[in-house]
């Protein structure tokens, strides 16, 4: 059974940091490109970060560049998102996504709340 389980979310003050993890099971994560998305209340889901299957290539929307870092440990079947300098507008549910031709898997999400 394919599963993606996010962890590491929580409440953090503006300017703080969090590290999200996404543990995959039931499939080989190294065969998939991986993404982090987020969805804030009343807004559409948006891409936060992308990483190639080997980890050699990453992509971030301009609003995340310099603050967020995506990484992966294929040996541990785990994806990470390091988030620094967090802002209130980063508050959302964060989802990890594994994708290749013919397959598209999503986790259940982890809540990140940035507030003083």
Keywords:
mainly beta, 116 residues, 4-stranded antiparallel beta sheet, globular, 53% strand, 7-stranded mixed beta sheet
What does this structure look like?
The model has no long low-confidence stretch (mean pLDDT 96). The protein has strands at residues 3-7, 10-12, 18-25, 33-39, 46-51, 58-59, 68-73, 78-83, 92-100, 103-106, 110-114. The strands form two sheets. Strands 2, 4, 5, 6, 9, 10 and 11 form a seven-stranded mixed β-sheet that branches. A four-stranded antiparallel β-sheet has the order 1-3-8-7, with no helix packed on it. It contains no helices and eleven strands.
In percent terms, what proportion of residues is strand?
over 45%
Distance between the termini: 40 Å
The radius of gyration over CA amounts to 13 Å
The number of E-state strands comes to: 11
In DSSP terms (H or I, runs of 4 or more residues), the helix count works out at 0
Globular, elongated, flat, extended or rod-shaped: what is the shape? globular
Structural topology:
Layout: E1 3-7, E2 10-12, E3 18-25, E4 33-39, E5 46-51, E6 58-59, E7 68-73, E8 78-83, E9 92-100, E10 103-106, E11 110-114
Parallel strand pairs: 2-11
Antiparallel strand pairs: 1-3, 3-8, 4-5, 4-9, 5-6, 7-8, 9-10, 9-11
In short:
Helix content is 0%, strand content 53%. The chain has no helices and eleven strands.
């Amino acid at each position: 059974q394919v599963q993606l389980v996010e962890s590491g979310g929580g409440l953090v003050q503006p300017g703080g940091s969090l590290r999200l993890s996404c543990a995959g099971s039931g499939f080989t994560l190294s065969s998939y490109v991986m993404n982090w998305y987020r969805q804030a209340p009343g807004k559409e889901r948006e891409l936060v970060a992308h990483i190639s299957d080997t980890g050699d290539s990453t992509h971030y929307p301009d609003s995340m560049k310099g603050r967020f870092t995506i990484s992966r440990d294929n040996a541990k079947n785990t994806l990470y998102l390091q988030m620094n300098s967090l802002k209130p507008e980063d508050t959302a549910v964060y989802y990890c996504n594994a994708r290749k031709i013919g397959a598209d898997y999503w986790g259940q999400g982890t809540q990140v709340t940035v507030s003083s």
